[in-house]
Amino acid sequence: MPRPTARGVAFTIAGVALIVLAYVLERPELLVLGIVPLAVVVLAVLSLAFSRPQVQVDRELEPLVAVEGERVRVTVTLRGRSGPAEWVETVPAAPGFIGPGRIGGVRAASPVELHYHYEPEQRGVVGIGPLLLEHLDPFRLVVRLSSTRVASPQLVIPAATPLDRGPIPLPHTRTGAKSSRSRERADDDVITREYRRGDAVRRVHWRQTARHGELMVRQDEPQAGPRAVVLLDTSASGLLGSPRARSGAATDPFERAVRVAASVAVHLDELGYAVELRTSTEQAPDAPLALGAVGDVLGALAVVAPGSPPSIESRPQRHDGPVVAIACAPDDWSIGWMLAQRSPSAPAAALLVGSASGMDELLGTREGDAPLEALERAGWNAVRISVSTPIDQAWLALVVADAIDPFADLLRRAADHA
């Protein structure tokens, strides 16, 4: 619905005032002068009311699957009919929109393209759009805000930090270790078909979707080699003892744990393992699927959330291969769940994120650290890190005792709090 601008309000007030003065002062000529600005405002309203834009919006996202904190290029194509307008696009990043910009008009024979970049701040399935168009009449007396009502979903996966060789050995099979390049080729060779209504979103194959220009889903699963398991403690009770976020994911222990899990999963895949993610609480059954050999893991990590432990205990599936656990402040139930996932002879490592406080956390003090002691007694290689510890240093700390420089960590945290 068109609404008056500040100029339109001024014209309306002036017209009404002149009409009132015309009757008070008995001056007919003032009546004519008062009718003119009111008539202009009415004509401006009618001009916008009967010239509604008919615009179709298409978006192209590059990359199709975004990484938290990395730049995404968005191309918006407008087709249809619209007069000159200012535009604003809603995006999932501060301050919440891109723009304003201006288009000279849209015609059926000449589509208009808009280009911009944004950096997603949070993992998950986010929406880009809708595009808002603001039309003004030639005299700028009335404005109409139109929404295209079309939003494009985008999967944002957690950022993964490259890791060096750590506590997990290379896999060995009868044919040797499986390289990440061969695993990527296997992922490309997977059989796909067109998306059908009712297909689970997690089966969407994003690489083939980008190639074909339409949604494609997997018909089979790639062959898996030696397997490794990544455990993520998602129990809400395991977060109560953790310092909570002050200003976003950079200081939130759980978000840091999710990034650690993503980094470990990508590293294990590069070593040649088929990676499985297990969480301590039930998650969404149809998690989205990202690109690559660990696309299912990264897609699940994109939407993972804390929850309550199950009321009925299920029989644990002990894994004979490597197990890496990530937790914040695990309680006795979470520690028991982690220990139950691993066979006694399998390599096992654990990183506890941001679950201590003060200098003890920075200097790695183990005295009275019940979760850490319980893991080490069970034969796990475990370390406690702070939310500000670089993930690659935390990974090396599992094999090198002094890999974390406590004083550099202290300086980083002091800068964050400054």
Number of strands: 18
Number of domains: 4
**Category by helix and strand content:** alpha/beta
> Into which percentage range does the β-strand content fall?
15-25%
Using the 3D structure, state the CATH architecture of the largest domain: 3-Layer(aba) Sandwich
On the 0 to 100 scale, the average pLDDT is 79
Indicate the overall shape: elongated
> How are the strands ordered across the major sheet?
1-10-9-5-6
H-E order: EHHEEEEEEEEEEHEHEEHEHEHEHHEHH
Low-confidence stretches: 173-186, 240-247, 355-365
Describe the structure.
The chain is of the alpha/beta class and 418 residues long. The protein folds into 4 domains: 3-49; 54-156, Immunoglobulin-like; 159-176 and 226-417, Rossmann fold, CATH 3.40.50; 179-224, no CATH class. The chain is built from 11 helices and 18 strands. It has helices spanning 6-25, 28-49, 180-188, 206-212, 253-271, 295-303, 332-340, 358-363, 370-377, 391-396, 406-417; strands at 3-4, 54-62, 65-67, 72-81, 85-90, 97-103, 112-118, 124-128, 131-136, 142-147, 152-157, 192-194, 216-218, 227-232, 274-279, 323-327, 348-353, 381-385. The strands form 5 sheets. Strands 1-10-9-5-6 form a 5-stranded antiparallel beta sheet. A hairpin with a 6-residue loop joins β5 and β6 (97-103). α1 (6-25) runs antiparallel to α2 (28-49) and α5 runs antiparallel to α6. Residues 173-186, 240-247 and 355-365 have low confidence and may be disordered.
